[in-house]
Amino acid sequence: MQTGFRFAHFSDAHLPLPPGRSGGLWALAGKRSLGLLSWRRKRHAIHRPEILAALLADVAAHAPDHVVVTGDLTNIALPDEFERARAWLEQVGSPDQVSVVPGNHDATVRVPWDIGLGRWQPWMTGDAPAEGFPFVRVRGPVAFVGVSTAVPTPPLLATGTVGAAQAARLEAVLADLGRRGLFRVVLMHHAPILVGRSPRKALTDRRHVQDVLARGGAELVLHGHHHCNQIGSLPGRGAAIPVIGVASASAAPIGRGQAAHWNQFTVGRRDGAWRLSALVRGYTADGFRTEMRYAMTYERHDAATWS
């Protein structure tokens, strides 16, 4: 489909850690120390800034109407990381052009809002500025609904939680946007389905969130977190809701891990029904290349169909 509203999705940038012991030894206590060890042992070789830069250049070359980033800009949630990530977001695009939700690495430990996630507030603020999470940004025919699943967890766990209060607001927001006839895209770091067999990285209240999505309605859910391309679905109101994850935006092709990817989605209408098409771009030694194209038509009363 050549016309329509186009938006890019990537996730898990994992920007390089600042040099030195930012904040002193006290700042690296607890779970941060494990994250620092992981970064120094292997993650610094996986998450490469030059690959992330190449991805951003490829995204810019496709000139999407909007960009969405589903978390994990940082590694161990140091204040310096949040500040450096803000500078990086300014390069990605203006707050009006880019929407962000936080990930579990962005909540490695509790950080005061003003020196933590608050640094990114312009990119996480909805059309109604005081609404918090979930925030809503309407761009063309699309309503982007940003959900936070980022909560501090004990060592060795990378779970996320939406929480009852946010889930209740999410259901009401989705229902209202559905009545307005908008294409609803839910943004969250953790998948609302179980990816893989281990619950160690799962959304703890995913069954409740699944019920919320089924009742409130949505046309698409985008997530990151698992560093792999993934396509699943959930029951929705009249049609299945696609649940699509993407590999890390900075990942080098090392070992069995999946190299960096990003997805471009195009939303349009055909014969009175929504149509979604996707372009999957993956990193190779020669730069980013198109690996796959697929499309989905949302029928009015029947199950959605893929092609």
Brief description of this entry?
The protein is an alpha/beta fold. It is about 25% helix and about 25% strand.
Please explain how this structure is put together.
The chain has 307 residues and is α/β, with parallel strands linked by helices. It has one domain (15-306): Metallo-dependent phosphatases (Purple Acid Phosphatase, chain A, domain 2). The chain contains 5 helices and 13 strands. The strands form 2 sheets. A 7-stranded mixed β-sheet has the order 3-2-1-10-11-12-13. Strands 4-5-6-7-9-8 form a 6-stranded mixed β-sheet. Strand 12 and strand 13 form a beta hairpin. Helix 4 (164-179) runs parallel beside helix 5 (206-216). Mean pLDDT is 92; it is low at 301-307.
List unreliable stretches of 5+ residues: 301-307
Number of helical regions: 5
- CATH superfamily, please? Metallo-dependent phosphatases
Strand composition percent = 25-35%
Q: What is the helix fraction of residues, given as a range?
A: 10-25%
Strand line-up across the major sheet: 3-2-1-10-11-12-13
CATH class: Alpha Beta
Say how many strands there are. Answer: 13
Number of domains: 1
CATH fold name, please?
A: Purple Acid Phosphatase, chain A, domain 2
- How many angstroms separate the termini? 12 Å
Order of helices and strands: EHHEHEEEHEHEEEEEEE
